[in-house]
Here is the input.
Amino acid sequence: MTTFQAPKGVSEYFPTRSNRFEVIRETIIEATKRSGYQLIELPVFEDTELFARGVGASTDVVRKEMYTFEDRGGRSITLRPEGTAGVMRAVIEHHLDRGQLPVKVYYSGAFFRAERPQAGRYRQFYQVGIEAIGMKDVRVDVEVIATADRALKACGLRNYQLEITSLGDAATRVRYLAELRSYISGIELDDDTRSRVELNPLRIFDDKRPEIRELMSNAPFLLDYLSEESKEDFSQVQNLLSALNIEFVINKRMVRGLDYYTDIAFEFVHPQLGAQSGIGGGGRYDGLMAQLGGAELSGIGFGMGIDRVLLACEAEEIEMPDHPQLDLFIVPLGNGDQALILAESLRSKGVRVAMTYGDKNLKGGMKSADKSGARFSLVLGDDELAQGIVPLKDMVSGEVESVTLSAIAKKVLAPDRVH
Ligand code: HAM
Here is the structure.
């Protein structure tokens, strides 16, 4: 019989590596909650037009990476390639901006881009992201960047770099793009590159070829065209980041892959990840909400690539759990009925318990206990049960202590457990 394989280029997580994935995802979510962001759970598919208009027609994402299909009602639907457009749609549709501003939400889930798969680049990947909508204030910009930075540090990462830039306001962009177009028209480019930059000349800074980089070495930079207001915001953001001891470098060539960005934009890059070094990124988007039919409200947010943060943690050899975080493993002697009853009673008290099933002998049972990574183990025989006193083994020190059945929960609920 033929067996099935997952579609090409998707990322999948199963035990034991899924434990690490979960720790990374939950650590990043916890960092966003500490900054007051609340969960927003949205559909993974939306009206195609939302992304076409929100993400931008010149982007690779919209031009060639969307999973678009017609649903049974003949509507054009697209699997979400990113989270910001959907959040804006929800804010507008449900009038979330009528309450206190900024609206601060986080999301976590799968995103889809039909890219050429390679290490760290998948067609289904995972992000935790945040959006703060309705307040243009550099303190919000810095809170967003600081939250991402704190999240990465909480994952244990040290070797990443924060790059920031300002993409200016709409008027700046018009002035600058005219200059850039005129510069590009004076250099020799192949047809393919020329047609790409005609749609959005900024994309040429994305080109990694040394000859193109050389040709662009004297090109004007957007940063030199900023309005007084954008310049002031950019410098305040830098001052505040320094006050928070968050290291950064200014990347004048940064081009975000999505078109909605204005003013502050940032990326976290990890040098040990090769070509797919972007572990997270984001920025401010002034015109997006109005462009999608909502109020003239500015917003800012980030998207963290969980797949890549995990790869970065592995590249830095950060110690992460490779097993479920069990408090106790029970090895029953006999059929296991009493062990199951004890396990359930402990579970209801908050203890994480696993046990062996089937007719494993004591040796096999202890092997399973070892492999489980549980902090304590317990061999449960009839005698022990009759006496109500059981031998609790500390799997780290190897010490065995006799404890009463009613004292197990307290003993094994370790204060040092990482939740
Ligand atoms: P983005 O830079 O397109 O931004 O994606 C954010 C992160 O998602 C990237 O830095 C990367 O780590 C991860 N990522 C993107 N594509 C892939 C892929 N094919 N495979 C694996 N990981 C990937 C956004 O999506 C914006 N919505 C972020 C944002 C929120 N800006 C403002 N608010």
Q: What stands out?
A: The CA atoms of residues 348 and 409 lie 10 Å apart. The chain has a mean pLDDT of 94. The pocket of histidyl-adenosine monophosphate is lined by residues 82-84, 113, 115, 121-122, 125, 127, 129, 131, 257-258, 278-283, 301-303, 305, 307-308 (CB under 6 Å). Residues 17-34 form the longest helix (18 residues).
